[in-house]
């Protein structure tokens, strides 16, 4: 199966008044070569959605580990209803764009989950309840509970609200407005959840709408767990090194985004000035602000990320397109 159904979102769950229940739920799972974690992720979601009206969209992007073949069976075994999609290009930001603008079902609550995370049994209900209780909030953020930096990140999120990419939820009405606005994450953006959080905080308009913390409600009792990295595992060592380089790239992205959208930082064109590709945004920023170029001695991972950016070729359009692998149940 390879056709993408056209969905009518004019009466989506997001049209409900903000104070009403956020059902039904749509859960978007993002995975790249997460075959080892996928069963655990799906089993946790099955427990977290028990008794709820929920539809799962599993988006595999750039996966080459056999998860495309196994995912439909794993979803059936977990008794989850939804669909499995495959995108050739490995890019979570593109996968998020595809979900928001093409694949999303009608829902009052859209939950975003990384496939390496196992949500806690009450996490989704706590996120939904928080949005019901906070009518000004357009997003509900979960907090980490495992990992060396979890405690510090948790405290930081409670003081400075934001979205963590492993688990968060958007109100349906906000998703409908976001899709209608045409806003997209730049392709290749590592910190897509951070930019989505900025979309929420600025109510989709960074040029005229002030930053409003009440737009994101951080729920300290909603969380997930991770399988810890094994220092003796070559695969986990490679994963950790990739993460360090990606974090270096994220530092470049933060400077480039501020330069692009905020007054006094550059073009100050708001979110509408975001380019199609994150790589071009970073290179344009460094051309305009050459002193921001990372130095190998001071930030080796950002310097390595920049080297990769300069060598990268834009993806083929066809590689960005989602293909329906299976509808579950079939």
From TrEMBL:
Q: Where is the Glycosyltransferase 2-like domain?
A: 26-148
Q: What is its EC number?
A: 2.4.-.-
Provide a Gene Ontology MF annotation, just one.
Answer: glycosyltransferase activity
Q: Which domain of life is it from?
A: Bacteria
State the SUPFAM superfamilies in the record: Nucleotide-diphospho-sugar transferases
The first-level EC class reads: transferase
Q: Which InterPro entries match?
A: Glyco_trans_2-like, Nucleotide-diphossugar_trans
Instruction: Return the Pfam families for the record.
Output: Glycos_transf_2
Keywords carried by this UniProt record: Glycosyltransferase, Transferase
Is Glycosyltransferase tagged as a keyword?
yes
For this entry, the protein name equals Glycosyltransferase family A protein
Record the organism: Muricoccus vinaceus
């Amino acid at each position: 199966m390879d056709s993408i159904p056209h969905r009518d979102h004019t009466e989506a769950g997001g049209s409900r008044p903000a104070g009403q229940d956020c059902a039904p739920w749509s859960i978007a799972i993002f995975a790249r070569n997460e075959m080892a974690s996928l069963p655990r992720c799906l089993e946790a979601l099955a427990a977290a959605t028990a008794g709820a009206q929920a539809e799962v969209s599993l988006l595999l992007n750039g996966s080459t580990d056999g998860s495309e073949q196994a995912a439909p069976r794993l979803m059936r075994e977990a008794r989850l209803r939804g669909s499995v999609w495959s995108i050739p290009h490995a890019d979570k930001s593109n996968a998020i764009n595809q979900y928001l603008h093409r694949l999303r079902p009608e829902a009052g609550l859209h939950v975003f989950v990384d496939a390496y995370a196992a949500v806690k049994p009450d996490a989704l209900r706590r996120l939904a309840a928080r949005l019901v209780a906070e009518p000004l909030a357009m997003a509900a953020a979960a907090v980490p509970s495992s990992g060396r930096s979890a405690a510090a990140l948790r405290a930081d999120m409670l003081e400075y609200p934001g979205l963590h990419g492993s688990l968060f939820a958007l109100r349906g009405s906000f998703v409908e407005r976001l899709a209608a606005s045409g806003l997209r994450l730049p392709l290749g953006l590592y910190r897509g959840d951070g930019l989505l959080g900025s979309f929420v905080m600025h109510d989709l308009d960074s040029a005229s709408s002030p930053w409003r913390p009440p737009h994101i409600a951080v729920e300290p009792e909603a969380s997930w767990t991770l399988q810890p990295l094994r220092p003796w595992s070559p695969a986990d060592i490679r994963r950790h090194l990739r993460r360090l380089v990606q974090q270096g790239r994220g530092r470049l992205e933060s400077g480039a985004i501020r330069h692009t959208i905020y007054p006094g930082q550059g073009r100050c064109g708001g979110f509408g000035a975001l380019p199609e590709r994150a790589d071009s945004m970073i290179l344009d920023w460094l051309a305009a602000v050459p002193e921001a170029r990372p130095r190998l001695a001071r930030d080796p991972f950002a310097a390595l990320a920049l080297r990769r950016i300069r060598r990268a070729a834009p993806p083929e359009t066809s590689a960005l397109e989602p293909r329906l692998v299976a509808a579950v149940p079939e």
